[in-house]
TrEMBL record, chain A:
A Pfam match: DNA_primase_S
Coiled-coil parts of chain: none
Any GO molecular function: DNA-directed RNA polymerase activity
Family matches, as InterPro entries: DNA_primase_S, DNA_primase_ssu_euk/arc
EC number: 2.7.7.-
Cross-referenced NCBIfam families: primase_sml (TIGR00335)
Cofactor(s) required for function per UniProt: Mn(2+); Mg(2+)
Protein name, UniProt field: DNA primase
From TrEMBL, chain B:
Function: DNA primase is the polymerase that synthesizes small RNA primers for the Okazaki fragments made during discontinuous DNA replication.
Keywords: 4Fe-4S, DNA replication, DNA-binding, Iron, Iron-sulfur, Metal-binding, Primosome
Family of this protein: Belongs to the eukaryotic-type primase large subunit family.
Cofactors required: [4Fe-4S] cluster
The protein's name in its UniProt record: DNA primase large subunit
Any single GO BP term: DNA replication, synthesis of primer
InterPro entries recorded: DNA_primase_C, DNA_primase_lsu_euk, DNA_primase_lsu_euk/arc
Binding positions for [4Fe-4S] cluster per the UniProt entry: C279, C358, C374, C414
Length: 435, 455
């Protein structure tokens, strides 16, 4: 690929939007993407959290103390640059355009500018603010989905992600009282969640750990059999997750994954029942698909068997299959680096676009715009002489969602908080100066 | 000198508590002698050390309560309650000075003092607990009736899920969820819009979090003051004592393997099958089998091997030999070698990480694709039996071990495994994988010596 193939020239690139770009083709696509599409101003406004204003309460050093990291791939090598920082949007834009990273990660806000960390004693460089984040990967559900495995996903198994979003989003808002929550498609097989309330950003490691454990229901490594155990009545959070989401989703799952039609599939469910007599009775009598599941439910819920551990068995089965499986370590750490929204996933070419939690059932991972597709649209717009090309591409909807559902309400809250904090401080100073 | 009274008074000693359990809010304006300075501190340190020991052996809360009560009585208690309180306060503040100086020390001191406070609080009667809670101004957080009515169903639901029946008389405290992380983590409280509703019987957790947070801030402040002025001012009087107190032995952490305990790569297979505890055997086996381990597994096994005496160069060679069979030597060097060097303190912050203790391993949370953790806790019964079988454990020993596992005495189960596989008893009980290894080597070494012909 030669250099003359710049975006606004006469000769647009021949794009095959079905091909996932790699190597130097990827770099070229990225150059155009970063040149025309990446929403620098929106990202800056988000991460500045209101400090980019002129109000005297604003901390102009805030954005510059945030760590970014770039992954840069050349032909043979992959270079990982940590502790990148920028004073403002323009510096960030210049750096990204110059380096063309295949991945941009966002880290924590530190006590000092990460680029200057060596000038400070070890104890002087610490993370002080960081969003509360969650990372959910559909490959962690490989043992319960039969349509895909590993990095693949389809419309049959994607509902697992939808469920995860619903359960966690509701809990974050209802139980923890957070409201500025951004959900992002990770580009291939999962979703990320960024909780951006100031209260969330200031959580300590211990508090993040507590929240992660609150959500940790599906437990156990490769060697434990039963990953969900309920010893008594369910906590209100679990009861709500069950009634509002998991129960019905499991019914659908039974049908889309044909859980009771294949022996090895329903055998797994039988393994979760801690009563031999129940298991053998069921195994004998079974005939058709839905009949089996109804039969199982009836048997376990009738209360005729008094074996310990049977009372919550249905819930345990449902949770084992459908409850969100988080990567706990991502949530617990304060300086875990997480991929930035609006990156291009190098494996699929798809853009990591935001997902509206209120409409998460409508989200279709197979129709997320790819970088190739965007460039094709851009060229098409250019060739018919439309102006504001980017606005007319598939990315516009995502940027619009980001702004209206997330950024604008967040900035408003931030400005209010900054003003209030400033006024309080001024009042205190005044009071202390009064004799 | 101000007399410190144990009954009703309002912090003439600055510590602020009507009961005999002080909150150590500010340094007392007491005078005391230099000899008391050292002696009181050492006595308190014995208590803290015993707590540390008890926790790392995985003692249950009731056992810890007994331990604290005994240790306190043996080391700190005086016939005269006033004198006890005085010693309590003085020793705390002296140790604060000693342990504020380094991050590891602060962390240890904070954990032990919080634990001490927790169990002492539990041992107080309801009146005393109430007055401590008033000290912390928790009376302002009592849930009002109107609000109670709107959520009482959920409160009942939450109470039932932890086997507790609340009634309309139960007092609830409404606090930000950040104040009760343990209760949130274990889903033992109802939370709504960022507030946790803590029933009276769970208030220990709340009180301890507040206590811990206060002491943490105090330690940071004391550290700054020490560095800024006190260290210099007191260089001939207190500073030497503080240094000496800080060097009191805290128990082995196995980060620096002893003299001839270095192992070489060619021995590693043999050692794994004879002297590794089950958790490490399992990780080692999986690594050999899959030529890969996920991050936590690498940490748990890697640090253990460091503690066992594997040098950095050998460690790199070992992991490279395995990983390169799955991801290739180049990817290993690029993606994994760094973190091995990091573990040995050669990269980044240069912290020399210590191998994980049993307590830490038991509390870890293995997930999909993980093989770390404590097999006695994290394996299903079937898998555990199979793994123990492979170690040569069977019959009566197997039953005893399974029994311990069912009762959640994971470390005792491991101790029994040691005893079964070595044919000897292990008096001290296992509380660290490296300890298992060291004891095992000791056993085999002495066996070898015995079987050698005398010169």
């Amino acid at each position: 690929m030669t250099k003359e193939k710049e975006e606004h020239r006469e000769d647009p690139m021949q794009i095959d939007s079905n091909r996932v770009p790699t190597g130097s083709l990827l770099t070229d696509y990225l150059r155009i993407y970063y040149g025309k599409f990446f929403p620098y101003t929106d990202m800056f406004k988000w991460l500045a959290y209101g400090n980019d204003g002129k109000h005297p309460g604003c901390d102009s050093s805030y954005f510059g103390r945030r760590e970014f990291s770039f992954t840069i791939k050349s032909d043979r090598d992959e270079v990982y640059l940590r502790f990148q920082s920028f004073f403002n949007a323009s510096e960030m834009e210049t750096s990204i355009k110059a380096k063309c990273p295949t991945k941009i990660d966002i880290g924590a806000v530190y006590t000092v500018d990460p680029a200057k960390r060596h000038a400070y004693a070890q104890s002087g460089f610490n993370p002080i603010e960081r969003e509360l984040v969650f990372d959910i990967d559909i490959s962690d559900y490989d043992d319960v989905r039969y349509c895909c495995s590993g990095a693949d996903t389809c419309l049959n198994c994607w509902p697992l992600m939808t469920i995860a979003i619903k359960v966690i989003d509701t809990a974050l808002r209802e139980d923890f009282g957070f409201s500025h929550i951004l959900w992002v498609y990770s580009g291939r097989r999962g979703v990320h969640c960024w909780v951006c309330d100031s209260r969330a950003r200031r959580l300590s490691k211990e508090q993040r750990s507590a929240i992660a454990d609150y959500f940790h229901v599906y437990k156990g490594g490769e060697n434990s059999l039963k990953k969900v155990t309920f010893s008594g009545p369910l906590h209100p959070f679990l009861a709500r997750a069950y009634t509002d989401a998991l129960k019905n989703e499991f019914e659908k799952w039974v049908s889309t994954q044909k859980l009771f039609e294949h022996e090895e599939r329903f055998h797994k469910i039988l393994q979760l029942i801690p009563d031999e007599s129940v298991v053998s009775e069921l195994a004998e009598k079974w005939q058709g698909n839905s009949v089996r599941w109804e039969h199982l439910k009836h048997m376990l819920q009738s209360g005729s068997k008094k074996t310990q551990g049977l009372r919550r068995c249905i819930e345990e089965i449902v949770f084992s299959y459908t409850y969100p499986r988080l990567d706990i370590q991502v949530t617990k750490g304060m300086n875990h680096l997480l991929k930035a929204p609006f990156c291009v996933h190098p494996g699929t070419g798809r853009i990591c676009i935001p997902i509206d939690p209120k409409k998460c059932e409508e989200f279709d991972p197979t129709s997320v715009p790819t970088v190739a597709q965007l460039i094709e649209e851009l060229n098409a717009n250019a060739s018919i002489g439309a102006d504001n090309y980017v606005e007319k591409t598939s990315l516009a909807a995502s940027v619009h969602l980001f702004r209206t559902c997330f950024l604008e309400p967040l900035i408003k809250t931030c400005k209010d908080e900054l003003e209030n904090a400033y006024n309080t401080m001024m009042q205190q100073t005044k009071d202390s100066l009064n004799w | 000198m101000e007399i410190v009274r144990s009954q009703r008074r309002n912090g003439s000693d600055g510590s602020g508590s009507a009961a005999s359990l002080p909150l150590y809010k500010s340094a007392p304006s007491l005078e005391f002698r230099l000899e008391e300075f050292g002696q009181y501190a050492i006595d308190r340190l014995r208590v803290l050390q015993a707590i540390s020991d008890g926790l790392s052996r995985g003692k249950k809360p009731e056992e810890m309560e007994n331990l604290v009560s005994e240790q306190w009585r043996a080391n700190m208690k005086h016939q005269d309650a006033d004198k006890t309180l005085r010693k309590d306060i003085i020793s705390h503040f002296v140790l604060r000075l000693v342990y504020c100086r380094e991050e590891e020390m602060r962390r240890w001191f904070l954990s032990m003092e919080t634990a001490l406070f927790r169990y002492r609080f539990r041992l107080q009667n309801a009146e005393a607990q109430k007055s401590i809670m008033n000290e912390l101004q928790l009376q302002y957080n009592v849930l009002g009736n109107a609000e109670y009515e709107t959520i009482k169903d959920k409160l009942t639901e939450a109470a039932r899920s932890v086997n507790f029946t609340s009634n309309p008389e139960t007092v609830f405290y409404k606090v930000p969820f950040e104040d009760v992380p343990e209760l949130v983590a274990s889903r033992r409280v109802f939370i709504l819009k960022g507030f946790a509703f803590v029933p009276r019987n769970q208030v220990v957790s709340l009180v301890c979090t507040i206590f811990r947070s206060n002491i943490s801030k105090a330690l940071a402040l004391t550290n700054r003051k020490w560095r800024a002025m006190i260290q210099d001012q007191e260089k001939d009087r207190i500073a030497p004592m503080v240094e000496a107190l800080g060097n009191v032995y805290l128990g082995p952490d196995y980060s620096k393997p002893k003299d001839c305990a270095e192992i070489s790569l060619k021995d590693i297979n043999q050692l794994a099958s004879t002297s590794f505890p089950l958790c490490m055997r399992h990780l080692f086996g999986k690594l050999r089998e899959d030529h890969h381990l996920k991050h936590q597994g690498r940490m748990q096994l890697g640090l253990f091997l460091k503690g066992v005496g594997l040098k950095l160069e050998d460690a790199l060679a070992f992991w490279r030999a395995e990983f390169s069979q799955k991801v290739g030597a180049e990817r290993f060097d690029k993606e994994y070698a760094y973190s091995i060097r990091h573990n040995y303190g050669k990269e980044g912050k240069r912290t020399d990480y210590t191998p994980y203790s049993c307590q830490k391993i038991i509390m870890s949370t293995p997930s999909t694709g993980d093989h770390h953790g404590c097999p006695y806790r994290h394996f299903s019964e079937e898998n555990l039996r199979a793994a123990l079988n492979k170690m040569g454990v069977g019959g009566r020993a197997m039953d005893d071990i399974m029994d311990k596992v069912r009762n959640r005495h994971y470390q005792l189960a491991c101790t029994l495994t040691f005893e079964a596989t070595h044919g000897t008893s292990c008096e001290t009980g296992i509380n660290h994988p490296n300890q298992y290894f060291v004891e095992s080597r000791k056993f085999f070494e002495s066996k070898n010596k015995q079987s050698q012909p005398t010169a």
